[in-house]
Design a protein that fits this description.
Blueprint (H helix, E strand, L loop, with lengths): L15 H13 L3 H20 L5 H18 L9 H23 L6 H5 L6 H19 L3 H10 L7 H8 L6 H18 L5
Helix pairs in contact: 1-2, 2-3, 2-4, 2-9, 3-4, 7-9
Length: 199
Amino acid sequence: MTSAAGRAAVPGQAPLWQQAAESFAAWRCGDRDALDRLVRVVSPVLWQVVRAYGLDRDSADDVVQTTWLTLVRTGDAVRDERAVLRWLTVTARREAWRVAETTRRMRPSDDGSLEAALPAHASAEVEAVSDDEQRTLWAMVHALSARCQRLLRVVAFSDRPDYAGIATSLQMPVGSIGPTRARCLTKLRTLIETAGGPR
């Protein structure tokens, strides 16, 4: 890869796509901590991708979170682990565009600059399928424990989570937040697969 996202940020460090590929492959082989590493490495890139669509911070956080949840739900569709970085960025762009378009429609007084930067409008059928998938996904999230829901909603996919605040709120050691996040995502994936959801 030759893009800025795919190059190493530090001399001597493996390219980002390679770090992502290795973490993704390890996660699929059962290493729960590998998903935490993948999230930590790629989230800053996804944040930049999403913010380019003019979303505010809360909306951008939601889009990045949805991107990671989509990977948990449909990660088996990524046949080649070397493609996971591209898969994540494309998924984030599509979701960011969908949210930005919805926001634009709700603000008809916008100057049109956002509309000009967005791709062609998706069909009603595509939007309906996307909305249905999102509802199903969040129904699975709501089936998790309150602690898992809190982690996934508040800190799971933030590149700079307030670990101290969350640790105090959930009465858990700061050092256990990352591993707990990985366990919660694994539970979510199991729930989705058990329910027969799309892979």
